Structure of C-type lectin domain-containing protein:
Amino acid sequence: MVINLLDKIDSPEAEVLARWVVALNFCESLHMKLLTIHSEDENERVHKYIRDASKGHEYWIGGTRLVDGYKWIWMPYGTQVEYTNWSNGQPSDVNEKCMQVWITNNKLTWNDRDCNAEFFFVCERYVDSSTSGPPGL
């Protein structure tokens, strides 16, 4: 069984700013992926992680509409984004095709951004819960 270890987010490059595609490729090079958020509970746990990390208030996550320009999907698997927590008025620009989260008014909300902007990012890993011991790459 595969589980999401969101409470054990692994972000080895948390102090590095990168463009969205660079962040995506970096995570994949470690057999990980850019963070995905599928529920309000996950969004709250990500908020706590980012708040406690104190590296910044804006992070790339794995959502994009680079494929067709309109539909938001999670990369690298191409699954449709169903749960959302957009900031008021977002997404706001059809030319901003990558997804970031940011903390405003002590809330973690989502925003569309130009994929060439540089932000911190969070890599996420999944582990097989049938194995024992610490999770590995």
Observations:
- The chain has one domain: 14-125.
- The mean pLDDT is 82.
